[in-house]
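Appendix B. Extra example for self-study. Work through it before the problem class; the solution is given directly after the inputs so you can check yourself.
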Amino acid sequence: MELAIPVVIIFTFFIGSFVMISLHLGQMSARRALPSRDAYLQQSASLACSKCGSSEQREFGLDDQHDQKRIVACAACNKELFQFRREDGTA
Ligand SMILES: [Zn+2]
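Solution. Structure tokens for the complete assembly:
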């Protein structure tokens, strides 16, 4: 049946998209649930990574790089640590 191949391709595409979206939404809700910087500081007594102890961090926006809501992750092991809101509007 020559119809089978395009159907399989389309089907694979939809399943693939669905998996990607699910993974992305899961990651987004995990990020939204991250503690604030103050809460993180309170529970771990320092801003160092709770997983590997590194104090090197990288920061990025929640939705895109200009998002005011910032996520801070460990630069060494990539664990997402906490979030904060950038209020000043610079950069
Ligand atoms: Zn780490």
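Self-check: Residues 4-32 form the longest helix (29 residues). If your reasoning did not lead you there, revisit section 3.
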